[in-house]
Design a protein that fits this description.
Helix content: 25-40%
Structural class: alpha/beta
Shape: globular
Number of strands: 13
Order of helices and strands: EEEHEHEEEEHEHEHHEEEHHH
Largest sheet: 9 strands, mixed
Strand order of the largest sheet: 5-4-1-8-9-10-11-12-13
Oligomer: single chain
Number of helices: 9
Length: 311
């Protein structure tokens, strides 16, 4: 099943400051803050929710179709998508813009200072779900505000089931808009913090929100995840990782597992378990798209964790 991945494509520039911010930011001088950090360690990673989800779904053998907007600096990312065999038909280059990107400086205590430039992401509404052909499933992941609203509405108009993943885009919407997203969607996925924020913004409990969709999935990091469906809870354990290196992109890997399972008619329990395996594989690698397990290796990790095979 061709799965339309609506969301951001971004570059992540990560710098390491080999000291501690607290040694250079003086509390009594914040009103005249003027600091510079020498960062001898720098790397550039491929990221963005749409790129990360599509990457993981491809590893699983799915058929992701990326729908995103990029800027004039997108050639390296577009070349990467081509090498990975990911369709670029609906990756729109917006002239006069940069591709969305985050600049992250980390110190020795793992504190971070991040600057995020949305760039072309703010033009995501220029893409339309109606232009994509042969789509059987979709996801609305964090993206430009108007684009997320438009794509959710278009999935519903087209009768295409989709997963709503508000992520870091959640604060952009009020309670009424979030309820409209959920009512249009078939599935919702959020981490525990986002779930609490959804409750606060909508004035409704998770249990009440879950009754409006087929399944409401809440991820809880090392505590696993919970799938709320038909008035019951399916508890999914956290799969043991070979190493805990970098959580960046784990949520996107998890969502790719969900989408693969939904596209292939697996049960919600199997969906959560496969998603958990994908998150465990990702967290053992630095960056969101540097893990490269084969489909057979994913199957073996699933078997080791749960004692049976999905394929």
């Amino acid at each position: 099943m061709r799965t339309l991945i609506c969301g951001s494509i971004a570059y992540d520039t990560i710098m390491v400051f080999r000291d501690r911010f607290r040694n250079h930011i003086l509390p009594d001088q914040i009103h005249i803050l003027n600091v510079a950090f020498l960062v001898p360690d720098l790397r550039r990673e491929y990221g963005g929710c749409a790129g990360n989800i599509a990457y993981n779904l491809r590893l699983l053998g799915g058929e992701p179709v990326v729908m995103a907007t990029v800027g004039e600096d997108s050639h390296p990312y577009e070349s990467r998508l081509e090498r990975l065999g990911l369709e670029r038909t609906h990756v729109l280059r917006v002239e006069g813009t940069y591709t969305a990107q985050a600049f992250i400086t980390t110190d020795l205590d793992d504190n971070q200072i991040t600057a995020f430039h949305p760039g072309a992401m703010n033009h995501s509404h220029l893409n339309s779900v109606h232009e994509a052909e042969g789509i059987g499933l979709g996801i609305v992941a964090p993206d430009g505000r108007e684009g997320m609203l438009k794509h959710a509405r278009e999935f519903r108009e087209a009768g295409i089931p989709f997963l709503f993943d508000p992520g870091q885009g959640l604060p952009m919407y009020n309670g009424r808009e979030l309820i409209d997203f959920i009512d249009a969607a078939d599935y919702v996925a959020a981490n525990d913090y986002e779930a609490k924020l959804l409750e606060e913004r909508t004035g409704m409990s998770v249990a009440a929100l879950a009754r409006r969709v087929k399944a409401f999935v809440i991820t809880r990091g090392g505590q696993g995840s919970v799938i709320h469906t038909e008035g019951r809870e399916i508890h999914i354990p956290c799969v043991r990782a070979e190493a805990v290196v970098d959580p960046t992109g784990c949520g996107d890997a998890y969502r790719a597992g969900l989408l693969y399972a939904l596209a292939n008619g697996l049960t919600l329990e199997d969906a959560g378990r496969l998603a958990s395996v994908m998150g465990a594989i990702k967290i053992a690698h630095r960056g969101a798209q540097n893990h490269r397990p084969s489909r057979e290796e994913i199957d073996e990790r699933f078997y080791e964790a749960f004692g049976y095979r999905l394929w």
